[in-house]
């Protein structure tokens, strides 16, 4: 029975990715949740000493580029929401206060946010972001799959995606730092804030989910194959995700055939 469930889950995940590629990507927002240790691991001098022990909010980023008329004014945000923001949306760098961070995120992203075509107010934007953070508890999701912070264990991107897919029924985007560390989990939404699949990328990598900012020592002998940069905070529409893609690769069909065969084999036993 366990074999059937496991094979079926892989099949559902793969079909979900294929459906995204067929129907196009209806992403209007991305919620970016960040692992503090991964952010600070190679720039310790910039980070505060006592880092949060949970995933924090990096931002809620809209696809829209049409500004609203609302300006940043911290007093417009309720004390209750601000208290939650201090816990879940803090600045972890020494050169930026919490208020500086929130202002930056509003002026770069929030001012463009629209829900069902209507401009979101400052209060609506920050309250919505906090609500989504509480709904998508990444630490809890990963722990339920035995994916826990460690300075030695590596996890495959596919394993992480599958875990979150099992809990949300949608494919997340896993953002990595330096091709080594799991930096962010991004959940995608349509204009009504209904979760949708993110574009599929970064498969094949094995990433560290660092327990401490000293974890970089296990990678010191590895040759870096890419630039040590963070993922873009812009919502990109990739041609490979649009209806215009006329065919799938032989590898994709091979995977699907293999999964179908595996499911059939499991049902026999």
Highlighted features:
single chain; 269 residues; alpha+beta; Ribonuclease Rh, Chain A; 2 domains; 5-stranded antiparallel beta sheet; two-stranded antiparallel sheet; 9 strands; 14% strand; globular; Ribonuclease Oy-like; RNA binding
Q: Would you kindly provide a written description of the structure presented here, covering whatever features stand out?
A:
- The structure is a single chain.
- 37% of the residues lie in helices and 14% in strands.
- The model is unreliable at 2-6, 19-24, 220-225 and 236-254 (pLDDT under 50).
- Strand 6 (173-177) and strand 7 (181-189) form a beta hairpin.
- With 269 residues, the protein is α+β, with helices and mostly antiparallel strands.
- Helix 1 (2-23) runs antiparallel to helix 8 (250-268), helix 3 packs across helix 5 and helix 6 (138-144) crosses helix 7 (157-168).
- The strands form three sheets. Strands 1, 2, 6, 7 and 8 form a five-stranded antiparallel β-sheet that branches. A two-stranded antiparallel ribbon has the order 3-4.
- Belongs to the RNase T2 family.
- This is Ribonuclease Oy-like.
Residues in β-strands, percent = 5-15%
Q: How much is the average pLDDT?
A: 80
Helix percentage: 25-40%
Kindly provide the radius of gyration, computed on alpha-carbon positions and rounded to a whole number of angstroms: 20 Å
The number of helical runs is 8
**Cα separation of the termini:** 9 Å
Q: How many structural domains does the protein architecture include?
A: 2
Helix and strand string, N-terminal first? HEHEHHEEHHEHEEEEH
Organism: Crassostrea virginica
GO molecular function, one term: RNA binding
Keywords: Signal
Signal peptide: 1-24
